[in-house]
C-alpha cells in the first residue's frame, strides 16, 4: 500500500493549522459555508492558507456556491483543490474546474452500497471522489457530523479516480476504517475537535499518527504475504 493521505478539514485557527502542518497532514481543508460551525471568512482563509502553502495541499470546501464566489476564493485564497460538498451537478463541477484552473474533488453521501453509483457521473470530471456519511435527516449541513457508515462497502472498489474516506473517523477507529475500506486517503473534521467546530491540536497529531501507524501495519502485512 502506498502512503495513506491525510486531510484535516475545517481548520479555523492559526494554532490548529500549524499543528496539522507540523503533524504531516497532506491536505488541509478550509470551509466556505456560513451554516457550518467551521466556516471561515475570506480574510481568515487567506492567512490560514499562507501557513500551509508549500507544505500541505490547500482544499477549499464549498456547498452549492455560485461561480462568482468560487472565483473570489480562487483569486484570494489560491487553493490547490476545490471540494464540492453539495448537490452540484457534474456540469457545474466541470465548468468550475476549467474557469478556476484547479483540481476538484466531489463529495458523495453514502449509507449503503447502492449509493456508490452516485459517483459515476463525476468520474470524468473530479480528480478525486470523497465518500462521506449521509447527514442525519433534517440537517442543513452536509458533512462534519461525526457519523460513520459501513466501510466494507468500499472494499475492492475499482474506480478510475482515487477516492477518500470520510465520516465519523477519529484516532481510535481510523486504522479499522482503512483496513475495512481499503482507502488510501482519509478525511477528518469532527473527530479532531474538542467541541463542535473547535479543533484540538493534540487530537490532530494523534489522528495523523494513527494513520501513519495503519500505513506501516499494512505494509508489514503485505510484505509477510508476498
TrEMBL record:
<keyword id="KW-0057">Aromatic amino acid biosynthesis</keyword>
<protein>
    <recommendedName>
        <fullName>N-(5'-phosphoribosyl)anthranilate isomerase</fullName>
        <ecNumber>5.3.1.24</ecNumber>
    </recommendedName>
</protein>
<keyword id="KW-0413">Isomerase</keyword>
<dbReference type="GO" id="GO:0004640">
    <property type="term" value="F:phosphoribosylanthranilate isomerase activity"/>
</dbReference>
<dbReference type="GO" id="GO:0000162">
    <property type="term" value="P:L-tryptophan biosynthetic process"/>
</dbReference>
<keyword id="KW-0028">Amino-acid biosynthesis</keyword>
<dbReference type="InterPro" id="IPR001240">
    <property type="entry name" value="PRAI_dom"/>
</dbReference>
<keyword id="KW-0822">Tryptophan biosynthesis</keyword>
<dbReference type="InterPro" id="IPR044643">
    <property type="entry name" value="TrpF_fam"/>
</dbReference>
<comment type="similarity">
    <text>Belongs to the TrpF family.</text>
</comment>
<comment type="pathway">
    <text>Amino-acid biosynthesis; L-tryptophan biosynthesis; L-tryptophan from chorismate: step 3/5.</text>
</comment>
<feature type="domain" description="N-(5'phosphoribosyl) anthranilate isomerase (PRAI)">
    <location>
        <begin position="6"/>
        <end position="209"/>
    </location>
</feature>
<dbReference type="InterPro" id="IPR011060">
    <property type="entry name" value="RibuloseP-bd_barrel"/>
</dbReference>
<dbReference type="Pfam" id="PF00697">
    <property type="entry name" value="PRAI"/>
</dbReference>
<dbReference type="InterPro" id="IPR013785">
    <property type="entry name" value="Aldolase_TIM"/>
</dbReference>
